[in-house]
Design a protein that fits this description.
319 residues, alpha/beta, Rossmann fold, eight-stranded mixed β-sheet, four-stranded antiparallel β-sheet, 10 helices, globular, binds adenosine-5'-triphosphate, binds magnesium ion
Amino acid sequence: MDEPLLSIRDLCVDYVSEAGCVRAVDHVTLDVSRAEIVGVAGESGSGKSTLAQALLRILPPPAIISGGEARFEGRDILTLSETELRELRWRRISMVFQSAMDSLNPVISIGEQIVDTLVAHGAATRQEARSRAAELLEMVGIPAPRVDAYAHQLSGGMRQRVGIALALALEPALVILDEPTTALDVIVEREILQQIRGLQEKLGFAVLFITHDLARMLQFSDRVAVFYAAQLVELAPAAELRRAPRHPYTEGLLRAFPSVQSDADEPESIPGAPPSLLSPPAACRFHPRCDRVQAICRERQPDLIQLGPRRAAACHLAE
Ligand SMILES: Nc1ncnc2c1ncn2[C@@H]1O[C@H](COP(=O)(O)OP(=O)(O)OP(=O)(O)O)[C@@H](O)[C@H]1O
Ligand SMILES: [Mg+2]
C-alpha cells in the first residue's frame, strides 16, 4: 500500500555521439509518493529535462537509456512496448513543457484540442468532451468564451494554462512540470503555481517540478532533489533542505537565492562553472568548486547516504 507511485533506481541516460558519450543522468535513484510534489533543482545542463524525458520515454536521439529501472504503478516504464507507452503517456503521466506553444496545435482551437485529446484516449464521447473541455479550461482560469480561441491569440500565461489543462485532462497520477513558468513574469508565475498547487490538493496527483528557481521550488514542493552534473547529490523535505542543507552544493544554491532566507542580503554565486559532462571531474564532481574540499573528495566518489527516513546526501562531509 505504501509503495511509491514512481520508483527510479540507478537510472542512466547517455547521449552518444562522435564527440563521445555524455552521461546526462548518472545512476539516479529517487522515489515519488502518491500526491507528493518533488522539486528537481540544479544548474543548467545538470540533466533535469533528460530525466523527465526518460520517464515518458520521449528522449530525442542520440539519447539512450543505458541502465536502471523506473517502476511506475508496479511496471517498469523502461521495458514497456510502444502500445503500453501510448496508454501511459497523458493518461497516467503527463508533462507541461517550458513553452506550451510547442505542444499546442496552431490551427485548432484550444477547446477542440482538449476535446480531441479526451476522445483520442477514449475518455469521453465528443459531446461529453465539449463540456469537459470547458470545465478543464475554467479550472485553470481560462474563461468559457475563450474555448474557441487559437493558441496564437493567447498570452504566454494563458497558453501555459492551456498546457496544464491538457496535462490534467485524463486525470494522470503524475504530472511532470519542466520549467512551466520560466517564460512568464513573476506575477503570472505565482498565480499559475498557486493554481497548480490548489488543483493538486483537490485532485491528488503527484508532481515532478523542474525549475532553476530554488526559492520558488522550496515554496512549492514537499521534497526537493538537488542535481549536480547528472547526479543526485541531495534529497530532503523542502523545509529541512532550506534550514539545514547537507551538501555544500545545496548550500551554494541557497546562497545564490537569498530570497530563500529571511536575513539574506546579496546573492552570492557559486564560484566556477558546472563541469562538462564529456569529462566530469573524478571522485566528487563538485570538489573543484567546493570550499570545504578534503583529500578524500578528490579520491573517491561519495555514495548517496541515507541521513534520515526521507533525507539523503552524497557528500563525504555528511557521512
Ligand atoms: N541533444 C543532445 N546531444 C548531446 N548532449 C546533450 C543533448 N541534450 C542534452 N545533452 C547533454 O545532457 C546534459 C543535460 O541536459 P538537460 O537538458 O537534461 O539539462 P537541464 O538540467 O534540463 O538543463 P536546463 O536547466 O538548461 O534546462 C547537458 O549538459 C548536455 O551535456
Ligand atoms: Mg531542462
